[in-house]
Structure formats: C-alpha cells, structure tokens
Amino acid sequence: MRAQHNTQWPAVLAQVRAELAEMTRSGETEVASASNTFKSLASQSDAILKRAASIVACVENESMSLVLPAVQSLCLTVSGFMEQKLDAANAVLGTLRQEESLLNQLSEVTQRQGAISGHLEALSVLTNVEVAQLGSVGSDFLILARELSAFSKSISQQTMELSNSAEGRTQSVEESRQQLAATVPRMRAELNQMETGIGENLSVIGGGLQQLARIPEQFRTYAQGTSEQIAGIVAAIQGHDITRQQIEHVQEALELIASRTPHENGESEAELPLVYAGLLIQTCQIRNIKQTVADWTSQVGRCMGSIRQLSISDLVSIGPRVLEQERGLTSHLSQINSLQEKSREYTKRIESTLTGLPSLRDLINEYQERSRGIRHRLQLLTFNSLIEANRLGRRGVVVSAIANLIKEVSAEWTAIAEQSKLTLAEIMKLVQQTGEVMEIFSEARGQKLREDQAASHDALENVRAAAAFVASESAQMQLVMERMQSGLGTVGSTGDLLLACFAPLDAALNRMESLLREFETRDPEVSRRFDAAEAERLFSASYTTEIERKVMSAALHGTDMPVLEQSLAGNDVELF
C-alpha cells in the first residue's frame, strides 16, 4: 500500500507541473490582450479626467463667484436709482401743481390789469372829450390826454403779453402734469415687475451656477475612482510577470520534491517531513496565485460596473442649461435699459416742462420792473392832473375828477404790484426747489449704475464663456465615454478569458491538497516533524519576490496568509 502511494506521488506532481506549464503558455496571449484593453481604457479615462479637471478649474475661477453679487448689486442700484427718480418725479408733480396755482394767481392779476387798462382807456376818452370842451384853455391838458391814451395802450399790450404767456404756460403745465401723473405709477409697476423677474431669474441661475460648480467636481471624483480601478488592473496585469515567476518557482519546487520522494526499495523515509513541508509551501503558493487572479477578474467586473455608471449626462446638459438661464437673466436685465430709456424720455419731458419756470420768472421780473415804471407814471399823471385842475379853477372840476380816478387806478395798480411781488417770490422758491429735484436726473447720479451695469455685463460674459466651455468639453468627453462603454463587451470577455485561462489552478490545488491529506493520513505527526529552517533553506533559493517568502513563512509557521497591501498592484515587488 505504501509503495503504491509512493509511486503515484511523482506522477501527480508531474501532472501538476505540466498543467501549470500549459496554463502559463496559453495564458500569455490572454494576459497581453487584457493588458492592451485596459491600457486603452486607461488612456481614455486619463483624457476624461484632464477635461474634467479643466472644467472644474473653469467653474471654480474667482470671476464665477462674482456673478450673482454683481447682478444683485446692479439690481439694488437700479431699484434705488429708479426709486429716487420716481420720488423726484412725484416732487415734480407737486411743483407743477404749485405752478398751476401760481399761474391761477397770475391769471387773476392779468384780469385785474385788464380792468385797469379799460379804466385808463375810459379816462383817455373822457380826457379827450374834456380837452375838446376846454378848447384853447385846456391846451396843456391835451398833453396829459395824449400821454394817458398812449399809456393805456401800453398797459393793455403788456397785460395781453402776460395773459398769453400765463395761458400758454398753464396749458403746457396741465399736459405735463397729466402725463407725468399717468407715467409715474406705470414706471413704478414696471420697476416692480423688473425686480420680481430679476429676483426669480437670479434664484434660478443661482441654482444653475451651483450645479455648474458641483456636478463637474462630483463627476471628476467618480471618474477618478474609475480611473484608479482601471490603473490598478493595468498595474496588476503588467505585474503578471511576477505571478508567472511564482508559478515557475512552484514547478521547480515540485520537481525538487519529486526527486526526494522515498521509493519502494525500502529506502529511509526520513525526508518525508521535508517533502511534506515542500508540498505545503507550494500548495499555499498556488492558493496565493489563485487569489491574485481572482482579484484581477473580480476587479474587472467592478470596473465594468463603474464604467457603465460613469455618466456625463448631467455634465453635458448643464452647460446649455446655464446658457439658457443666462439668456433669461440677460433678457430681464435688458428691462433695465428699457426703463432707463423711458426714464430719459420722461426726464426730457420734465426738463422741457420745467424750463418754462425760469422764463416765467424772467417775464414776471420784467413785468415787475415795468410795473414800477407804470406806478411812477400813474403817480406823475395824477400829480399833473391835479396841477392842471387847480390852474383851471372852476372849469377844472372834470379834470380834478379825472385826477382822482387816475389816483384810484394808481392805488389799485400798486396793490397788484405787491401781489405780483409775492407771486415772484413763490416762483423763485419753486425754481430753487426744482433745481434740487432735477439734480437726481443728472448724468453724474447715474455713474454708479453705469459701473454696476459694466460689472454685470462682464460677469455674465464669464458665465457665457464658462457654460460654453463646459458644453464643448462635455461633448468631447461624451465621445470618449461612448467609445469606452462601447468596448465593455470586450472588457467583459477579457475577464471571462482570464478566468478560463487560470482555471487549471483549481485542479492543481485540489491535487496538491489531496497529496497533503495522504501524507497526514500516513503520518499524523508529519506537520510537526519537519525542520522549518531546512525547508526554508531548500525551497527559497529561487525566490525573487517578497510575496513568495511571506507565503512560505505563513505555510511553515502556521500564520495567516499575507494580504495584498496594494489592490491589484501585482504580486509585490521583485527582490532582485
């Protein structure tokens, strides 16, 4: 029985060596093919990562963080500026109402002046009649009559000029007031609509910009993980040379073991424990090789899953989406230009309306000067009339009456002059207030608005450029992704072929484990009788990798098998 087993051991070991040799030969082609496949994937994933990094750098640019603050600042500036203009427009409305009141006062003045002009004309007629009755005696009074006639005509003409000017001004003010009264509420409604629209669009584009900043980084992180998986597989397969050496060393060790197996001629079986130790070491080496290959193939499956899940659909869509949002915001911001244009139109109308104030003031000023001259002349006419009446004695009764009438007209004119003076003071005050209000409409007050508009324009240009860049880069990445995913069938078959290629490891391991059990059945103490140092000296002579020594140590001393420290980085480094 013992001899039967002994003669079978060399045959079993020879069969294991032959299977391992055939596996190594047939596997070279598949390993090389797998290496090329994953090198291609590594190159494609590197291209994707580079584009993803450029996208992240673009959207993380400092200028992108200034977009929303710039637009918000513009909105606040526009709102404040337009509110000031609307408040100023309301103030102008008040000014126009006051002006209407002053014009009504002027209208009353002109009416009274018209009455005075009529009185003077009547006095002129009466004076002419009296001159005719007096004949040569009233020759001096003739001069007074002529002067009174010319004076009445002058006053009539001045009164008509003032009346026409006040009437035209009243009509212009009324039209402007009505238009402005209708315009201010409409402008305020448009301003509120603009603020609401911009506010809503800012909220939308704010979310878009957050996505623009977040999605590329998320994609890059996930793509980095996939790239590392691919790189790990590439490194592992490229490290197959170490695994191949490990298999070759197992074959060499099995040949050495076969040469030291006791024969049926009865030779001493003293080397049986050492043979057992050698079989144990090689069994553990094959287990380690099998685990390494299993890690390769399982990682291929996980890598395929990662590539399938690696989608840039969000990244591809976000560029056009942000561009669309930017166009919406730009459209809303264009309302600012529209409001400004309307504001400028209203400002021109307001300015045109208010330019009449200084002219009205000048007219009244001029009239005041004339009024003083008229009053003096009336006083002089009164004085001359009284002198002429006194000279004529009893025949100067009518002349005296005329003198008293002129005196009454002079007093009334003086009262009108005082009222005109008060009206002038009000107009002067109104002109000053208007000047202060109109300063709001000046170009200088719009400087901050122009600066914020320029900043918003630059910020939105950055959004457009970034979104367009993301769209362009994403499209290129999409092409690479499609090539990667179209090759997943090849990648999957690579994993299956690797599994099939290294399938003989199972049969070899089963045979080795069966031999170990036979040894343990024949000699239950065999696992404790071998010399570990001697076994290590004998079987480690050809070892060139650290992993082989660790496996051997675990086999001889019963410690845990070593775990690969770097996932899919090969069978560890070569020693020499």
Textual characterization of the structure:
Mean pLDDT is 75; it is low at 1-7, 264-268 and 566-576. With 576 residues, the protein is mostly helical. It has helices at residues 2-59, 62-65, 67-134, 139-238, 240-259, 272-309, 313-354, 356-392, 397-438, 447-486, 488-501, 504-522, 526-529, 532-539, 546-557. It has 15 helices and no strands. The longest helix is centred in the first third of the chain and has 100 residues, at 139-238.
Distance between the termini: 45 Å
Unreliable stretches: 1-7, 264-268, 566-576
Q: Provide the residue-averaged pLDDT.
A: 75
Q: Number of helical runs?
A: 15
SSE blueprint:
Blueprint: H1 2-59, H2 62-65, H3 67-134, H4 139-238, H5 240-259, H6 272-309, H7 313-354, H8 356-392, H9 397-438, H10 447-486, H11 488-501, H12 504-522, H13 526-529, H14 532-539, H15 546-557
